[in-house]
Each structure stands twice: as structure tokens, then as C-alpha cells.
Amino acid sequence: MIVAFDIIILVFLVIAAIISLSVKDLLAAAMVFGIYGFLICLLWAEMGAVDVAFTEATVGAGVSTVLIVATILNTRRKSTD
Amino acid sequence: METFFKEAVVPHFNFWIYVIIMMIGLWSVIAKNNLIKKLIGLSIFQTAILLLYVSLGVKEGATIPIIDHHAAELSLAGDAAAINPDAIANPVPHVLMLTAIVVGVATLGVALALCQVIYKDFGTLEEDEVLQKIKALHDDV
Fold this sequence. Notes:
Order of helices and strands of chain B: HHHHHH
Distance between the termini of chain A: 38 Å
Shape of chain A: flat
CATH topology of chain B: Helix Hairpins
Distance between the termini of chain B: 60 Å
Number of helices of chain A: 3
Low-confidence stretches of chain A: none
Largest sheet of chain B: none
Helix content of chain A: over 70%
Number of domains of chain B: 1
Order of helices and strands of chain A: HHH
Largest interface: A-B, 42 and 48 residues
Oligomer: heterodimer
Number of helices of chain B: 6
Helix content of chain B: over 70%
Radius of gyration of chain B: 23 Å
Strand content of chain A: under 5%
Mean pLDDT of chain B: 90
Structural class of chain A: mainly alpha
CATH architecture of chain B: Orthogonal Bundle
Strand content of chain B: under 5%
């Protein structure tokens, strides 16, 4: 575990979480949520949990973003908050 | 206050940031109006808990939990000192959280499917408008 790397990723993580929850365009929110998942994946590789990092990169950053985008395509892209 | 920072905040700064991420998720589940925003917040809440558990398996100076071939053969031959457990991160929380990630994506998929059904029935994904339409339906009956 490298402390400087840890701090940088955790700060980016909080920023990505706040951005993905505050943008009004849901497609942009889904994309920033994909970035959030990828940052979590980096954090896990850095913690020594490589198996969890692989799963997060495919399932967390990949599949859940695709699921959200598919739902937005079937519903509405705009959000009031 | 200074001793609190020295003893609780600085050595465990990652736990404090996990708490912040968790509270961001909880805030969005309570305060956000759009149902998809609520689900994104729920996923963020979940990742904070996963981060807490995986970070419990981290050891100072430890490497990834893969035993090299030579050490494994020595260990099987009866040399108990061939594998040093202090040099390997604890893999038990990793495996537990691996299951939790997959279950989390499955529940996210079901929740998004329910969102599509709600959109089909009410024509909106905003919580207040959905509640208004449900109330109007009850008033008609």
C-alpha cells in the first residue's frame, strides 16, 4: 500500500462521486459513475486485491454502466436534480 | 483536538474517507428526486462498505496473495517457514467482497428493470411526480 497513491485516488473518488450525483444529464452521470468504478478498481489493485480489481473493472465499471445507459435509453435522459 | 487528529484521523485517514463516501451515497438515496440518481447513490454506498472490508486485509509491506511455486513445494514438503504469512495480504475479505460485488450488480440490474416498469406505468422517473400520480389514482377510486 502506497500512501501518496492512496490519498490521490481517494480524493478523485470523492470528487467523482459528487460529480456523478450532481450533474443533471443522466448519461453524463452514468459515464462519471463508470470513472468512479475504474478508480475503485485502481484502489483495489493498489491494496493487493487483484482478483477484486479484475471483477470491478469488468462488472462495476463495465456492466453496471451499460445497464444504466440501457435504462436511460428506454426512459428519459433529463433529471430535475 | 490535536491528539484526536494524531491518534485517530491521520493513521486511519482511509477509513474517514470511506465514511465520507458512504455519507455521500446515503445523502443521495434520501435527498435525490430522480430514481436512477438514487440507484447510483446506492451503488456508491455499497462500494464504501466493500472498501472498508477489503482494507481490513491490507498489511504493511505485504504483497498480493499469490504463493510462488518454489515456496509452495517447500511448504508441502514440510517446511513450515517457507511461506511467511506476514508478507501476503489477507485474501479472505477479498473473496467475500468478490461475491458482494457480483450480488450488487445483480440487484442494480433488477432495480433498473423496476425503474423501466415505473416509467412505463407513470411516464416519469421523478419520485414526487410518481407519488402524485399514485395519490391521484387512489383519489379516483
